[in-house]
Amino acid sequence: xxxxxxxxxxxxxxxxxxxxxxxxxxxxxxxxxxxxxxxxxxxxxxxxxxxxxxxxxxxxxxxxxxxxxxxxxxxxxxxxxxxxxxxxxxxxxxxxxxxxxxxxxxxxxxxxxxxxxxxxxxxxxxxxxxxxxxxxxxxxxxxxxxxxxxxxxxxxxxxxxxxxxxxxxxxxxxxxxxxxxxxxxxxxxxxxxxxxxxxxxxxxxxxxxxxxxxxxxxxxxxxxxxxxxxxxxxxxxxxxxxxxxxxxxxxxxxxxxxxxxxxxxxxxxxxxxxxxxxxxxxxxxxxxxxxxxxxxxxxxxxxxxxxx
Length: 308
Ligand SMILES: NC(=O)c1ccc[n+]([C@@H]2O[C@H](COP(=O)([O-])OP(=O)(O)OC[C@H]3O[C@@H](n4cnc5c(N)ncnc54)[C@H](O)[C@@H]3O)[C@@H](O)[C@H]2O)c1
Prior knowledge:
Blueprint: E1 4-8, H1 12-23, E2 28-32, H2 38-53, E3 59-62, E4 73-76, H3 92-109, E5 114-117, H4 122-133, E6 140-142, H5 145-160, E7 167-168, E8 171-172, E9 180-181, E10 187-188, E11 191-192, H6 199-210, H7 212-220, H8 227-241, E12 246-255, E13 261-272, E14 275-279, H9 286-305
Parallel strand pairs: 1-2, 1-4, 2-3, 4-5, 5-6
Antiparallel strand pairs: 7-10, 8-9, 10-11, 12-13, 13-14
Helix pairs in contact: 1-2, 1-8, 3-4, 4-9, 5-6, 5-8
The structure holds nicotinamide-adenine-dinucleotide.
């Protein structure tokens, strides 16, 4: 039987996520939104692209959660994006309200699904969703690290003029200004980038990665990035549906790992059919641990504001 993925929110990130999933023929896709007509229109448009792409993914849009029933994965992109001058944290209260609306309806119709949270501020929204749904921590995953590390990889590949396929990169911590890119675990064909670039260049690329979302918001003016974010979601969906056991940086609920308890923070995890099948603990230097603690502290502050 075909797998089923629901994408809640059929705006820029949601519709483009549906696009990547269908184009890769990973699953049938249901797009759902509160706006009448938009998910239906975008869903139908994508369905009509499938003969050209030679893909048998069925795509539909709806405003009725009954159509989302028995989804294997539900991706939550519902919420407002930021505008120039706004931080992700400015979205906190509005998106928390939206999350309350969405999570309850989602789990009513797909009680066995895996939830991938995308709405910002990411780590706090993942924490809210986890608390609301009562799922085990394996089944609630936040998307941020795959995007942040893809941005770092793109900048490294562009600077060194090498194939993006040669570049791996690691980014830990919260999805925000305190994210922690790890140059010593970032490589080009297995060679640490610290051997290939001077520290000033690395610091410049790290800072550009931290500001990666804001750089795009500044250009777009009316919304935030969506091609790379949705491609990142599709990679996570693929790892789960194909049980790939792929190690990816994701926001996960930590219970003592990295010395952090009871908080969603970005760490390397193994993604497979059960969701987060393992949290990988890597050794950090005291400076990296301090940066990760600072990042976790920023998530903790947000979580306290919404009282979860
Ligand atoms: N985690 C990440 O790395 C990352 C990256 C990019 C964007 N985001 C976040 O993803 C979210 C979506 O961004 P976007 O660019 O697609 O925004 P968008 O405005 O294009 O789309 C959001 C959609 O959510 C819908 N929505 C609002 N309330 C809803 C509800 N209660 N139920 C169902 N749908 C509802 C809206 O109608 C809209 O269509 C934002 O919060 C943004 O900050 C996160």
